[in-house]
Amino acid sequence: METLPSCPACRARFEKYHDAQGHAITHSPIGYVKLYIAPATQPVICRSYADVRAHILPLAEGTTLHIDLVAYMVVVGEGYYTRFGDGVAVSYEDGACEGLYLAMREAIPVESPPLQTP
């Protein structure tokens, strides 16, 4: 059973800071991602990992993506990807984008192991 805030004001505040799966959305105050989805020439601006996933996961397999990671108004990382399976296939990652592909897949639920008592 899912527990959700019941009053409209509390629910709106919850949805502002959480994605559809209930994970907290954290915004980076100093950077953002420019997401180019082929064949578009204008980027989509994403300010959190949740925003990036929201734009990438619904895409058809084989769609190519280009990401510029921007911090302090300077491109600090660049990546080229192809939508594949539960996430993306990496064509090229450089700078701060190295390992970014991990944030572009669906969240994997972690089952907590049973408590071991001595």
Describe the structure.
By secondary structure, this protein is an alpha+beta fold. It has a domain of 80 residues. Helices cover 15% and strands 32% of the residues. The protein has two helices and five strands, in the order H-E-E-H-E-E-E. The protein has a five-stranded antiparallel β-sheet with strand order 2-1-3-4-5, covered by helices on one side. The two termini are 32 Å apart. The model has no long low-confidence stretch (mean pLDDT 81).
Keywords:
single chain; 118 residues; alpha+beta; 5-stranded antiparallel beta sheet; 2 helices; 32% strand
Topology at a glance:
Elements: H1 8-17, E1 31-37, E2 44-46, H2 49-56, E3 64-71, E4 74-84, E5 87-95
Antiparallel strand pairs: 1-2, 1-3, 3-4, 4-5
Please describe the biggest sheet, giving its number of strands, its sense, and whether it closes into a barrel. Answer: 5 strands, antiparallel
Question: How big a fraction of the residues is strand?
Answer: 25-35%
Number of helices: 2
Radius of gyration: 17 Å
Note the run of SSEs as H and E: HEEHEEE
- According to DSSP, the number of beta strands is 5
What is the general shape?
A: globular
On the 0-100 scale, what is the average pLDDT? 81
**Alpha-beta classification:** alpha+beta
Helix content: 10-25%
Show unreliable segments: none
